[in-house]
Amino acid sequence: MAEFLFYALSIAAVLFGIGVISAKQPLMCVLSLLGSFVCLGVIYLLAQFQFMAAAQILVYAGAIMVLFLFVVMLLDLGNVEELKENSMRILGKKRITVAVVVAGGLALTSLLGTRDSMASAGPEPVVVRPDAYDPVAEIATLLFTRYLLAFEAAGLLLVASMVAVMVLAKRQREPLSDQR
Amino acid sequence: MTVTLVTLLKILVIYGGLINVAALMTLAERKVSAWMQFRIGPNRVGPWGVLQPLADGVKFIFKEEFTPEGANKFLFRIAPMLSAVPAMLTVAVLPLAGDIAIPKLGTFDLPFFGPTELGGITTNLSITDLDISVLFVLAVSGLSIYGIILGGWASNSKYSLLGALRASAQMISYELTLMLSLLSIVVMTGSLDLREIATSQATIGQWHIWTQPLAFILFVVATFAETNRHPFDFAECEPELVGGFHTEYSSMKFALFFMGEYCAMAVMSGLTVTFFLGGFGVPFWPDAPWFVELPAFLAKTAFFLFLFIWVRWTLPRFRFDQLMGLSWKWLLNLALFNLFLTGLASALGWF
Amino acid sequence: MVIVKRKELSFAERLYLPEIFRALSLTFRNMFQREITRQYPEEPLPKTEVTRGQPRLVELEEGSLACVSCGLCEAACPAYAITIDGGETENFIEREPKLFEIDMLRCILCGFCEEACPKDAIFMSDELELAGFTRKGLVYGIDKLRRPRAALQKRIDYVYRINDRWRNSSSTH
User: Fold this and answer.
1) Based on the domain organization, do A172 and A98 belong to the same domain?
2) Which residues of chain C have pLDDT under 50?
3) Which of B338, B348, B297 shows the shortest CA–CA distance to B213?
4) Is the ipTM of this complex over 0.95?
5) What is the number of domains present in chain A?
6) Residue C109 lies in a domain
7) Which residues of B141-150 are buried (b: 16+ CB within 10 A; e: fewer)?
8) Which end of chain A is less crowded, N or C, counting CB atoms within 10 A of the terminal residue's CB?
């Protein structure tokens, strides 16, 4: 039963993923992504990662996808090209610098993550205590001790990318004198 | 075998109860509003108008199903379901009462299963007990935005779209307050299990309404916003947006939106009781049997349901910028402050 | 120009919550006030002699109508609701209406017909309810309009009294 569910959900998730990149309407893309997230959440649940499942639905489906939907509905999607041009103009010659900074940030974050996970010598002792196993406490402990630096770095990177998107997506208003 | 049967029975009873509560709420809303305005309210269908929800149901079934031109048919159909289902799902983890011991009923010869021994287990009155039921509730109730936002978008009507946009902006803003005010309770209890949170407030002095009064006020305000009720009902806001996101809906689709709203109210009231008023605990009777605990829980929940109606017919609607200002400038900061204080007290070992 | 000064709010008022509780207590107290709803069909509206309902024709004791089909009410009617066709009879009063129709959908209950009538044959009754399934059905003929004089007596007395008062106070008298 669990195996069948796993395969069915995986196939559904992949199909939804294909929907994300192939759907014509942007709204349908967002909804496909939502479906994919929900499938993943249920797969986590099947694997007994209850906390992961809840977090997946809560954070991705409940908050982030709503914002996506919001943006898609509010945005005047007729002039995507203009937006693209606009952002290229703002970036200008600094394009390469920005790319390097972003790539460097990503690399640094993943490096930190790997370093931290390698830090404990030898294979990680897997705790199999189904009676006393508290996934929330486990995750919290790991997140705030061993992976703290990587966690904070990822957060910083996300904030930086958010600021960047704001700068790029902001429509430049032409000064009044230029209209003549 | 017994466990499966008992679970099925619990699902039937609890969902049936929830839907009946939602139906009766429509009547209660009209009755209470009438009393507050010196009127009588519905009194034609059945004694005291009790059968009014039934008459409304019949009316809804026979109304014309209307789909506006240019609407996205698929999303238009699916939106009411997306709005109603999360509200009904969350009731699955609400602890309604403590343990029930089912005595041994003897061995029965069931068709397909052969002789089976029934009874002899102890169960408790909630459909399921998750370790992380708080997160489950928050995650699933967060999904109810989709029904509203998709319903508004798929209707191909500007009123609907505006209502949907307002509703989603509002629900995202107030969800933060909702979660943060709950977190301080979670910090105090040290558990994400609703049943454990409820049982940790055994005596009336331990109710979290006394230990966390600020969180209580924040949570109640946020539930009003989350369920799109007055004074925050910008999703429908009749004078400006006709009917908001459900302007174009009719017949059972509209009824489903309506059911969803009332179910969400019932669940939110139940959650408020569980978090702040000791859940199913009976004041001054620590280990009451389940048939006393269940009415206690229902009575407490009924008070909050009444509060929803009461406030609706008392307060005027906010302005939208006031709503957003209240959320981001006041409630969110207060919730963060409260969480900080609770965390500090917890770290210092004050409780 | 009027300069409106905003009222300075006290801290409690700006906190908003105490005011909410005041409002809530008001609505809660209102719940126990007496209802002022009238249960209409069971509890009819109070009717007095002044009530100006639908016009009705007076039927005399002998069973004939007081109307002589002079056509003054037809002429006075501002809504053109009245249609009359008269004829002669062998009675002491030699004329009576062969056809007297009031289109109740057009009638505006103004009472001009009552004032115009020289024979005290048409009065405004206290009947107010009007319902039907067709427009034709709401064009009332003689059979639906005739009422024994006793049924209209209250209104008739009232009209006489008012007319007397008017006559006695008239400056041209």
Assistant:
1) yes
2) none
3) B338
4) no
5) 2
6) yes
7) bbbbbbbbbb
8) C
